[in-house]
Specification:
Blueprint (H helix, E strand, L loop, with lengths): L30 E2 L2 E2 H5 L1 E4 H6 L20 H19 L3 E5 H4 L6 H21 L3 E6 L18 H21 L3 E4 L5 E2 L7 H22 L4 E4 L9 E2 L4 H10 L6 E6 H6 L4 H10 L3 E5 L18 H13 L8 E3 L10 H27 L2 H9 L6 H8 L4 H9 L11 H16 L3
Helix pairs in contact: 3-5, 5-6, 6-7, 10-11, 11-12, 12-16
This protein binds D-xylulose and cobalt (II) ion.
D-xylulose (XUL) binds next to loops.
Length: about 450
């Protein structure tokens, strides 16, 4: 039985192709730098957006047409697995990601929920035996159900802390069984609404206790995937604890948890935090903490997490630049935590959207590789900080300067002259590289 019968396997047809169901730039086997595109980009389909979302928003009902919608309950969960593996195969994608509640419905109690999960995980495990698509990461949804109203690990209710621990325990067992490369923690409700009634210190301590228990249990069962924290400043919570990379890193360091985690950086979370995507990637990278990416984009005119498919070539280029500088994502990948717009409600749009995202990152990859090969940004940066390579600058770097020496040096300066940054020249150079890649010159 087929869920997408009008679609055959999507292949690379090149930039001149007019076939909407083909890749114009993503050519999995093409070598860029030292790896194939498939190895560089490690694309993943997000189960929730692609197989469970119905298009509803705070003002409108679900409107998506999905071929599995004639089913319900566990039959629906099973149909989604069948559809998912057909989709992965047709899109030729190497990875997927899910929350526990995406793959199986919750039962009347936790025991039943786990039973439902076991049934579906059995089925997924079976599919994975013959599919090339692997599990990039899984996670536990600890934000949708009303029990998480006050948070999960940071809830004021210890029963909820325990419930959350049980869900993550199960999630780690599933990760181990399915060979997940990573396990993600996104604390959608780990934060506060008001400080008037919040014991901030207790909540932070509890979050650290929770992470410690997760590390211990992963070690106990021999799960060797990478733990990832996905920062987000707000939404649904007014103030989320894992606000951005810098905040989450300081939390991890305070509790001596930093050796066990890297970050899963989401583009739209970065912009919600008032940063660029590349800022978050850079901060994670320079601390050796760039683990994985939720590849999407926001809308500058809307102030929330719109989770659009990434099509901004400037953003994908600068993101891939950071990833190449990081020598790749290791166990991580580019997960399309992205949804089709409510107005794109036909099943075929799921393919169009992923193709758009994959082609956009392929262009970003090729452009970034060329920028690196030609040392374009490196040269600008080298020149800009040149004053630290000799004289007083080198003394500062080498620890051979103190305030007294610097004062003496400053006093004998007759004038301080600064060179221009030439930022517009840099931007137009990047445009030139982008257009040359797109036109294959
Ligand atoms: C929410 C979000 C999540 C995480 C996984 O903004 O990004 O889907 O990626 O829980
Ligand atoms: Co995400």
């Amino acid at each position: 039985m087929s869920y997408f019968e009008n679609v055959t396997k999507i292949t690379y047809e090149g930039p001149k192709s007019t076939n909407p169901l083909s890749f114009k730039f993503y050519n999995p086997e093409e070598v860029v730098g030292n790896k194939t595109m498939e190895e560089h980009l490690r694309f993943a389909v997000a189960y929730w957006h692609t197989f469970t979302m119905d298009g509803s928003d705070p003002f409108g009902a679900g409107n998506m047409i999905r071929p599995w919608d004639r089913f319900s309950g566990m039959d629906l969960a099973k149909a989604r697995v069948e559809a998912a593996f057909e989709f992965f195969e047709k899109l030729n994608v190497p990875f997927f990601c899910f929350h526990d509640v995406d793959i199986a419905p919750e039962g009347d109690n936790l025991r039943e929920t786990f039973k439902n999960l076991d049934t579906i995980v059995d089925m997924i495990e079976d599919y994975m035996k013959t599919s090339k698509t692997k599990l990039l990461w899984n996670t536990a949804n600890m934000f949708t159900h009303p029990r998480f109203v006050h948070g999960a690990a940071t809830s004021s209710n210890a029963d909820v802390f325990a419930y959350s621990a049980a869900k993550v325990k199960k999630g780690l067992e599933i990760a181990k069984r399915l060979g997940a490369q990573n396990y993600v923690f996104w604390g959608g409700r780990e934060g506060y609404e008001s400080l008037l009634n919040t014991d901030l210190k207790l909540e932070w301590d509890n979050l650290a206790r929770f992470y410690r228990m997760a590390i211990d249990y992963a070690q106990e069962i021999g799960f060797d995937g990478q733990f990832l924290i996905e920062p987000k400043p707000k939404e649904p919570t007014k103030h989320q604890y894992d606000f951005d990379v810098a905040t989450a890193l300081s939390f991890l360091k305070t509790y001596d948890l930093d050796p066990y985690f890297k970050f899963n950086i989401e583009a739209n979370h970065a912009t919600l935090a008032g940063h660029t995507f590349e800022h978050e990637l850079r901060v994670a990278r320079i601390h050796g903490k760039l683990g994985s990416v939720d590849a999407n984009q926001g809308d500058p005119l809307l102030g929330w997490d719109t989770d659009e498919f990434p099509t901004d070539l400037y953003a994908t280029t600068l993101a891939m630049y950071e990833i190449l500088k990081n020598d790749g994502l290791g166990k991580g990948g580019l997960n399309f935590d992205a949804k089709v717009r409510r107005t794109s409600f036909e099943p075929i749009d799921l393919f169009y959207a992923h193709i758009a995202g994959m082609d956009s990152f392929a262009i970003g990859l090729k452009t970034a590789q060329k920028l690196l090969d030609d040392k374009v940004l490196d040269q600008f940066i080298e020149k800009r900080y040149e004053s630290y390579t000799h004289g007083i600058g080198l003394d500062i770097i080498n620890g051979d300067a103190d305030f007294k020496k610097l004062e003496a040096y400053a006093l004998q300066l007759t004038e301080v002259t600064n060179p221009s940054n030439h930022l517009e020249l840099i931007k137009s150079t990047i445009n030139q590289y982008l257009l040359n890649i797109v036109h294959d010159r």
